[in-house]
Amino acid sequence: MAKIDPTVIRETRLAAAATLLFSLAMHAVFALLGQWSPMVLWGNLLGGATAVLDYFLLGLTVQKAVSQEEKQARNTIRASQQMRLLFKAGILCLAFAVKCFHPIACILSLFFPRLHILLRPLWDKDLKKSGKGGAEDSIDAIEKGRDEA
C-alpha cells in the first residue's frame, strides 16, 4: 500500500473540521425549530462520517491518479466515483430503513465537505489569490509532491 500523501491527510482533516462545524449549526437549527431528537444526532453521525470517508477516498484516488497516464487516470477516477456513489446510496438506504437515523440530517451531512470546498476561498487567502478551489489546490500540491519525489 502506498504512503498517504500529507496533503490528502491535511485536506481530510479540514473537511472533517468543517463537517463538525456545519453539524453543530444544523443541530442548532433543528433545536430552534423544536425538531431535535437523538435521531438527528445519529443521522448526522452517519452522514458526516460517510461524507468525510468519501472525501478521504477521493483524495486517495486523486493521489493514485496523478501518477498514472491520462486514460488510466480517467478510468481510475470514474471507477472510484461510481463506487463512492453506490456506497453513499447504500448509506442513504440505511438512513431511511433504520428508524434510529433521521434521514434529512443524514442527507444534509453528506453535503458538508462540498459546502466546505465551496466556501473555503472566503477565508483561505492563498485560494483567493490563485482563484482556485480547495480541490484544485489539493491536486496541485499532490502533483508538486510527485514531481519532487
Walk me through what this model shows.
With 149 residues, this protein is mainly alpha-helical. The protein has one domain (7-148). Helix content is 81%, strand content 0%. The protein contains seven helices and no strands. The protein is globular and about 50 Å long.
Brief sketch in words of this structure:
This protein has seven helices and no strands.
Layout of secondary structure:
Layout: H1 6-32, H2 38-65, H3 70-97, H4 103-110, H5 112-119, H6 125-130, H7 134-148
Helix pairs in contact: 1-2, 1-5, 2-3, 2-4, 3-4
Give a quick set of tags describing it.
mainly alpha, 149 residues, globular, single chain
Largest beta-sheet characterization:
none
Report the principal-axis shape. Answer: globular
Structural class category:
mainly alpha
Tell me the domain tally: 1
Low-confidence stretches: none
Number of helices: 7
The average pLDDT is 90
Provide the succession of SSEs.
Answer: HHHHHHH
Radius of gyration: 17 Å
Number of strands: 0
Distance between the termini: 17 Å
Question: Helical amount among residues, as a percent range?
Answer: over 70%
Fraction in beta strands: under 5%
